[in-house]
Amino acid sequence: MTDITTRERVSQRVPLWRDVIVLKWVTQVFLLLVVLSAMWFLANQAGDNLRARNINTDFDFLERPVDIQISEGIDTHPDTGGRALWAAMVNTLRLSIAGIFFATILGVIVGLARLSDNWLVRRIGSIWVETLRNIPLLVQMIFYYSAMTAALPRLGLETGPINGWLHVSNKGISMPRVHIADGFYQWAVVVLIGAVAAHFVRRHRQRIQDETGANASPILWALGTVALFGLVGLFVHPAFFWLG
Question: Are 236 and 184 in contact, with CB atoms under 8 Å apart?
């Protein structure tokens, strides 16, 4: 009986050329080969055309001297293409982090406004969302940039509001930035010692508060200890300087 059942199953098995699963796999493999062949052909054609025009496609430009000026970043006058690429990547990362941070804050504020019990605040939030959500982001960026360049003055020495410290112009906002001086690491060691001392000060003030019941402000004393060590360290080893 078992042999008869096995023979029936074998006789009822679908041939490979009619099996749906096999046909799907064969079709997918065939299409993959076609796509890879097309990519290989296009890459070879592009390579031949670039070589015919003496256009290099290697990565030697990363080490070659370049004459590129970047408006802002860690290196505004990079020496090589690799340094320029690194400065651009850092600028992109900084802009992305800042954009995500402020967009999150703005989104939370607008979301809370739409849930507000105040009718005016709720309507303003709704109008904000319903208006901006249907306008492409690129159009908004062009509009904001055009409005900024038209409203703000041209770049000059007197484009305050704080001359020498904060310049606002149609090129953007320029302000001095903090740079780490040579004594930063010595100052950091002093601050670290202050943090250790603040731990013992906090424990001492907490013990006094537990014994007497009076408010001994252990956290404020600990923060004051760290601040005191930091100020003393700045006088001994200046850790920062301003670069306009």
Answer: no
